[in-house]
């Protein structure tokens, strides 16, 4: 199947959401930070981006389900083969810190597999996107498109490891010590997956739990760029599940030789 129409709608919605996010980021609209039950921040930017994306997707694809971090979860989505998986502002903590490392994530799951992914970086205007069987691409400036491909690095002593700004853990510390990893890039949001997809990093190991909307878009982009994306136990990551929590962790690696778990 081809996903051209879904991809174009998602790209446009992501850009428009990014514009709304930047209006808050630049102070034109107050951020109005609230805190959800899990103590994660919620801003006016999250809400504005969510409205734009959900409206655009539901208008163009009224028969598709939508699972969004900022929307009430409708369980009838579980019977739908098509489900958009959306994080209107991935990296809200980075947004609040004002370090620019946040993204807009829009994915499409078909029969529980991520078949299309769009990641937009509002601060830089970079757009990453992919669809199943079509390859992965980055638009660094509007109109200039680069095909993405993972690196071929397999020397463990020199592996470029991308890590979270905000989520350290003991398992990652143990991995670093075991393999004497020394080359790290710490960055927020789904930008980590984009760095592996573009060959700027080689591996990304995430032991801590995430949610479907954190991983769906970058999974498609990474896989279409040639990466291996699995849960920590080696099983495929599926979407549009009853429990949206990615409890097993995951890894994105450029080559099977860099499977360290």
Rounded to the nearest angstrom, the radius of gyration is: 17 Å
Structure classification: alpha+beta
- Fraction of helical residues: 25-40%
Mind summarizing the main beta sheet? 7 strands, mixed
Reading the helices and strands in chain order gives HEEHEEHEEEEEEHEHEEHEEE
Strand order of the largest sheet: 3-4-5-6-7-8-9
| Number of beta strands | 16
Low-confidence stretches: none
Distance between the termini: 34 Å
| Total count of helical runs of at least 4 residues | 6
Spatial shape: globular
Beta-strand residue percentage: 25-35%
Averaged pLDDT? 94
Describe this structure in words.
The protein has 261 residues and is of the alpha+beta class. Helices cover 29% and strands 30% of the residues. The chain contains six helices and 16 strands. The strands form five sheets. The chain has a seven-stranded mixed sheet with strand order 3-4-5-6-7-8-9, sandwiched between helices. A three-stranded antiparallel sheet has the order 12-16-14, covered by helices on one side. Strand 5 and strand 6 (113-121) form a beta hairpin. The two termini are 34 Å apart. The mean pLDDT is 94.
Helices and strands, with pairings:
Blueprint: H1 4-25, E1 34-35, E2 41-42, H2 44-60, E3 65-68, E4 82-90, H3 92-97, E5 103-110, E6 113-121, E7 126-131, E8 135-141, E9 144-147, E10 160-164, H4 170-179, E11 183-187, H5 191-197, E12 203-206, E13 210-211, H6 212-224, E14 228-231, E15 245-246, E16 250-253
Parallel strand pairs: 3-4, 10-11
Antiparallel strand pairs: 1-2, 4-5, 5-6, 6-7, 7-8, 8-9, 12-16, 13-15, 14-16
Helix pairs in contact: 1-2, 5-6
């Amino acid at each position: 199947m081809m996903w051209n129409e879904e991809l174009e709608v998602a790209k446009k919605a992501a850009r428009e959401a990014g514009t709304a996010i930047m209006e808050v980021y630049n102070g034109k609209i107050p951020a109005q930070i609230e805190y959800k039950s899990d103590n994660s921040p919620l801003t006016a930017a999250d809400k504005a981006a969510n409205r734009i994306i959900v409206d655009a997707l539901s208008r163009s694809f009224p028969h598709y389900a939508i699972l969004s971090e900022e929307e009430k979860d409708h369980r009838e989505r579980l019977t739908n083969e098509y489900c958009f998986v959306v994080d209107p502002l991935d990296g809200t903590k980075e947004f609040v810190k004002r370090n620019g490392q946040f993204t807009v994530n829009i994915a499409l799951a078909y029969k529980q597999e991520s078949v299309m992914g769009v990641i937009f970086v509002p601060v830089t205007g970079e757009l990453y996107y992919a669809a199943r069987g079509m390859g992965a691409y980055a638009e660094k400036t509007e109109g200039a498109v680069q095909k993405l491909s993972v690196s071929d690095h397999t020397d463990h002593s020199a592996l470029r490891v991308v890590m979270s700004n905000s989520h350290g853990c003991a398992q990652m510390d143990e991995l670093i010590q075991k393999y004497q990893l020394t080359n790290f890039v710490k960055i927020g949001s789904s930008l980590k997956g984009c760095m592996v997809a573009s060959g700027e990093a080689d591996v990304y190991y995430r032991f801590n739990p995430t949610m479907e909307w954190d991983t769906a878009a970058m999974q498609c982009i990474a896989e279409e760029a040639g990466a291996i994306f699995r849960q920590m136990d080696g099983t495929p990551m599926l979407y549009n599940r009853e429990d949206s929590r990615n409890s097993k962790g995951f890894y994105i690696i450029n080559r099977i030789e860099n499977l360290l778990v």
